[in-house]
Design goal:
Layout: H1 3-8, E1 11-16, H2 24-35, E2 41-46, H3 52-57, E3 63-68, E4 82-83, H4 85-90, E5 95-98, E6 104-107, H5 110-120, E7 129-132, H6 136-148, E8 153-157, H7 160-173, E9 177-181, E10 193-196, E11 216-219, H8 228-235, E12 239-241, H9 243-259, H10 266-281
Parallel strand pairs: 1-2, 1-3, 4-6, 7-8, 7-10, 8-9, 10-11, 11-12
Antiparallel strand pairs: 3-5, 5-6
Helix pairs in contact: 2-9, 2-10, 5-6, 5-9, 6-7, 9-10
Length: 282
């Protein structure tokens, strides 16, 4: 990247609704500080689907990129000039890079972020996996599992409609997905890799069913943390990843795309995120 571009294009932000809770500014600003990008700024803006087109049209040449959270990940797609195959695979964009010639490029860093977080903890491939839940994060989890799981993924869901959706995602993403009713969710905990994508409280009742020798749990929540399930998993000696792991790894990829600087400072970003969460709990 040229110094000219760094000087001209130095603004980024996270958009969504609600957005006040977002840790993205903490992570990205920590990266800028570590990389010596003193001119760069990263803010948060409350933007819903109705306001998104106007917000994008109002951006000037100082903008380098945007992070998107709910409810904008799908709504942004028609407003972009191009969308990566990764983002297309789950119909969700969480990253927009704004180019010097004014183009808007959409990508999804959640999917490679999940895989990178697992790889950091020594999970390169697994022969089977379980997914708890069936929302938007579950489809990203399936897309990540398509890269690392050599066998079947079992999705534990609450309705026949959700079950059908997960099987359709599996077909689309090239993953063999079997579905089971949520009443059997305790069975998921014997899988070598369990990805919990459910809202806070949904898995609390499973904490007492953690096996004596659990594998790896990736619980995508980061607040409150640890969840009862994650705490029980750790007590039984299993490997636990949380929502901050996902948040940091997807943000690393965003920083690299938006600034053109790689590698982004993973350790500094994680430390900043941990400190911010600790301050909230206090």
């Amino acid at each position: 990247m040229s110094h000219v571009r760094e000087a001209a294009r130095h603004r980024a932000a996270v958009l969504g609704s609600p957005i006040a809770h977002s840790l993205s500014p903490v992570l990205h600003r920590a990266a800028y500080a570590e990389l010596g990008l003193g001119e760069w700024t990263y803010d948060r803006f409350e933007v819903d689907e109705a306001a998104l087109p106007g917000f994008l049209d109002g951006l000037d040449g100082s903008w380098a990129g945007l992070s998107l959270t709910m409810p904008l990940k799908r709504a942004v797609i028609p407003l972009l000039d191009s969308v990566s195959a990764t983002a297309r695979s789950v119909e969700a964009v969480n990253t927009v890079v704004l180019t010097e010639d004014g183009r808007r490029l959409g990508d999804n860093t959640d999917i490679p972020g999940i895989a990178a977080a697992l790889r950091e903890r020594g999970v390169g491939t697994v022969d089977s996996a379980a997914v708890l839940g069936a929302g938007a994060t579950a489809s990203s989890a399936l897309a990540a599992l398509a890269r690392i799981c050599t066998g079947e993924v079992t999705a534990y869901v609450r309705s026949a409609e959700r079950a059908a959706e997960m099987r359709q995602w599996g077909e689309r993403l090239g993953v063999t997905v079997r579905t089971a009713d949520w009443s059997r969710a305790a069975e998921a905990l014997t899988a070598p890799l369990v990805v919990a994508t459910t809202p806070a409280g949904a898995t609390d009742a499973l904490a007492g069913a953690v096996p004596d020798r659990p594998g790896t749990l990736f619980d995508v929540l980061y607040e409150p943390w640890p969840t009862p399930l994650a705490a029980a998993w750790a007590r039984h000696g299993g490997t636990v990843l949380g929502g901050l792991d996902l948040l940091v790894h997807q943000a690393v990829l965003q920083v690299e795309q938006m600034t053109g600087r790689a590698p982004a400072p993973l350790a500094a970003m994680r430390a900043a995120g941990e400190a911010a969460l600790a301050a909230r709990r206090a």
